[in-house]
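Methods: example folding runs. The two proteins below were folded one after another, and each record is reproduced exactly as written to the output file, sequence line first and structure-token line second.
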Amino acid sequence: MVEEPSYWQDRFPTGRRLGVLIGGPAAYGGAALLGHGWAACDVGVNASANSGTLLLFVLPFLWVVNTFLFGLVFAVVSGSTRLQTVLGVLAGLAAVVVFAWFVFAWQGTPADSPDPRCPGGVPIWWPSWIPT
């Protein structure tokens, strides 16, 4: 007797495959945002050390988390119709963007930054209507 694949067996692998494709550029964008925040606030030893940290640790971490997060949200939201699939993709993208914002707010805005370009640890180019 052949069993029908369960909801999670069907949707989560598809979401993970899409998450790998979407999570890579999103991870690069999140790491670049973090790097620009560090550069603006003069965080770290120097630009070379910051780049090494971003490439060796932050970028792979973001890619793995983005892939899993997108896959999970896609599996929960998407369904059998085309509209539900599109909503799953959009919800997954929104989750990845919110995670990138969280990482920037957590690690990209040092509260003890002495640099006058970062009052309160927030770079001056960061929009004031987005909380950090």
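Second run, written to the same file directly after the first:
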Amino acid sequence: MISMLDVQCPHCGVKGKIVVPSQGAILIGPCPHCDEMVAVFCGAVLPLDKEVMLNGNGRERRDHLLDVLTTFLEQSIGETLEQRPPEASDEDELATEIQHDGPDWEADAPSPISDDEYQKFLEVGLPSIDNKDYFDAIFNDK
């Protein structure tokens, strides 16, 4: 099944759908409606300067794209950090991450899988996950 991504041109506001690009890919091209340049990165549609992207030299195009991506990443990181509960400090969060080395369920709660099932997964399932047939048999509905 092909996954589609809803996109909206940051220049003219026209909405559309594109095939989800591979993880980490940067798609650069013109909006089919207004012909302005955009970049699609991590599910976001970012405005580009058409003049720079079409007529700039390699360094100018690279610097412009880097500026646009840096701004996007800085905003995304800021939004992510702002979503953290206000009472949690960086030190509390780090201590929790360091001390947490087991499952999230309570110690007296029944385990979702047995110790034998877990060991079998570690010995057989996990090493086989790169095998396409094994992966498809486990994870893909047919």
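Comment on the second run: The longest strand covers residues 4-8.
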